[in-house]
């Protein structure tokens, strides 16, 4: 009877120790996962456009998106000229992937200078934006 009781105590002790070890491993993993930095980068190559233009000109520029997210991510990109939405795009990138593209916007003949070209990127509930200004060429 005493041997059975001692065996049961040893079994309970081993079970408690294993449960603590497994719990610590799971907790450490969950903490590690929650601290993994997840973000994206949106950029415009500064040498890819001219700031001085005339009404009716076509403005071209090169933008890029780099994913540092922890999983494949859906992106929504909006391109504005002033307050007017000119283009909207949706695409997916895997972690570590980069998307670069040349974009063109035709300026209206009645555009008021200076005017801002703004890119707004949405991913995983976060917004990123970049912009540059256009001025009238003399």
From TrEMBL:
TM helices/strands, residue ranges: 12-35
Superkingdom, natural source: Archaea
UniProtKB keywords: Membrane, Transmembrane, Transmembrane helix
Protein name, UniProt field: Plastocyanin
